[in-house]
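Hey, can you fold this?
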Amino acid sequence: MKVSLFITCLSDIFYPEAGKHTVELLEKLGCIVDFPEQQTCCGQPAFNSGFQKEAKSAAKQLIKSFEQADYVVTPSGSCASMVHEYRKLFHDDKEWKEKAEVLINKTFELTQFLVNVLKVENVNAEFPAKVTYHTSCHMTRLLNVEDAPFKLLNNVKGLDLKPLPHAYDCCGFGGTFAVKMTPISKEMVEAKVQHIENTGADVLIGGDCGCLMNIGGRISRKGLPIRVKHIAEILNSGVK
């Protein structure tokens, strides 16, 4: 199966290991992975801030970048959900709306792709640690990916997965929200970190780099001994 990697801006700049683990995992599961180098931002920051013209420009570039792809996989539920927003973005442009629909139908968040397309729930990973999982807003609310991460994590050997209290609550990142509404964002991530502490977990796992960056920053500032890892790294641990 041929897969094109959609790396996303945050992964490219801040979390390149998430992309590396995604590629290695997909290849170990039999996929042929390529990387269209012309891909850029999906346009989400501009879209969420009301800059429609700029968002359309970025979206068109992404659509063109993956025209030849069979499947597009990304280690980000947030960016995958933004691709679905292209229906709204191009609602008044028949040509680009049709092109967007093609990309939408072949774009998947990593765990969504593994479980729903490859039909794999056990990747033979091993990660002996007490962990908890943060369900990011865009991934669950917009992309409707809720069960796939847990199906995969529950089959990781040695993993002790602890339920996260108030898991459905936002971490306070929200892209530009964290910049525009900093005081509110700060209180939200403070509450999220407290809930993570309450689990007794040694590792926080997530599927969106924005959330991991926000929560990880607060964990670091509090000096807590909790590691923050993208789910791709966990699933790629000890894969045979």
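Oh, and this one too while you're at it.
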Amino acid sequence: MANNQNSEPKSSWRPETALVHAGTNRSQWSETSEALYLTQGFVYNSAEQAEARFKQEDPGYQYTRFGNPTISMFEDRLRIFEGAEDCRATATGMAAVTAAILSFVKAGDHIVAARAMFGSCRNVIETICARFGVTSTLIDGKDLNAWKSAIQPNTKLFFFETPSNPNLELVDIQGVCKIARDNGIVSIVDNVFATPLLQRPLALGADLVVYSATKHIDGQGRCLGGAVLGSKELIEKYVQEWIRQTGPSLAPFNAWVLVKSLETMPVRIRAQCATAAKIADLLTTLPNVTRVLYPGRADHPQAALAAKQMPGGGQMIAFEVDGGKPAAFRVLNALRLILLSNNLGDAKSIVTHPATTTHFKLTTAQREELGISDGMIRLSIGLEAFEDLADDLSTALEAAKG
């Protein structure tokens, strides 16, 4: 008989314990590590059972595009940790964002979104949705009155990320989601920068929260993944059907990697946050650095809001160097330890130049509106020693002086 005593969390479990044990579904062999089910399909005992599965009258699996034991373990573990009623995993973070948005809108509907967001998210809302007759209004997400003013009779959805990519702008989750709820609008929060450890959008009133599991959840640069979490009603009625029919499904192997990654996420995130806070302070003292944006610092424009909805400053830093793009490129090219890549949330520290990578499709005017200057550098702090990161940044900034 399988030993499944840890499949449901005890109420006394702390988050760290839940991320190691919650959602475990052991096979008949009672393995210690979670099992990996690399299969496309599942065998039925009878034609009657197959019929019952497709009618969702029998709780078993049908096809890995619809569900799989390994994928379910990842969904259950993340759901329990997040405090959500339900979760659906996807192949990538953008698949999660797209599924969450398109599950709720149709031709003739309207979306309100904070303009400070990842370039691909903006493309989905402004370009892809528009192709199917869904209009949108992008606003200053910091301004609660802007959210109220942008509502139209056909507004179905609010979307925002906080902190935003790349300039770490914050949105008042509780305030915006109350406006949405009071007006019968679905609210979706992209929580990828803060992670579930530093911010709980559902507890603050959001209807859905989305993640790129590729980032901090995996945290080691190995695989792609995403997740949408929320109430059982919204997930089963809207998101599940979208994923089932369109197929942005997470691969079982990737799900297994992400399940194992959740075990170490608190240790990784806390270490990265501690180092990021010290690096942010260091950057304010280095030559050619004209601005540092870090939610954990008192000089962040929204420091009070950060303290209210985030118990830590996070792992992401944005800073600007004097001299625009040429100076920023000199800094990036002078780094020897920190890697140049457009990914983030890795055990390895990573930098990128948003104006020419993640947000290059925006016009110069749009980037200026968002505060993404040609001298801005986005820094994702990893697990290296603070002293080594400090040496690398100090040397690069000194060598890159014009």
